[in-house]
Structures are given as structure tokens and as C-alpha cells.
Specification:
single chain; 81 residues; alpha+beta; GTP Cyclohydrolase I, domain 2; two-stranded antiparallel ribbon; 2 strands; 32% helix; elongated
């Protein structure tokens, strides 16, 4: 199976978390870059966008997981179709 690369780079957001009290109180800007390796063969063959990654959903999940939530965690992006 051949995998294709889908990248979303430069997602920016403001969050209120960090190690220092001032980071949690005053906030700071965070940046996120993401690269997904996905099989896009079905989407390409059928020209059906519902069979590939939804960029808006991907950006939304990354923003809520990595920027606004005050913990570090890994987020599954499997539901982006």
C-alpha cells in the first residue's frame, strides 16, 4: 500500500498553560505542524472527498487538543473522515 502525505502547517493559537504560573495566567501563542500519512487511493479513484482527510476537521482537532487543553497528550485523528 502506498501512503500519501497530507500536511497542515502553521496552525497558531493562544493557550493558557505551561510550567510557570505566568504562562497559565497570561497565556502564550502556540504553533502546531502536523503530517498525516494516509492511503488516498480510494478518494483519488472515485473523486470522492469524503474518503480522504477533512482539513477543517483536522485543524479543529489539532487546535482543541494541542493549543487549548492544558495538558500534553496524543490525540487520535482517525475520525477526520
Amino acid at each position: 500500500m502506498r501512503l500519501d502525505q497530507i500536511a497542515l502547517r502553521g496552525l497558531r493559537g493562544y493557550g493558557y498553560h505551561g510550567v510557570l504560573d505566568s504562562e497559565r495566567h497570561d497565556g502564550q501563542e502556540f504553533g502546531v505542524d502536523a503530517v498525516l500519512w494516509v492511503d488516498t487511493a480510494a478518494a483519488a479513484a472515485s473523486d470522492d472527498l469524503s474518503l480522504t482527510v477533512d482539513y477543517a476537521a483536522m485543524a479543529g482537532r489539532l487546535a482543541s487538543a494541542d493549543i487549548t487543553v492544558p495538558t500534553c497528550r496524543s490525540t487520535s485523528l482517525s475520525s477526520l473522515r
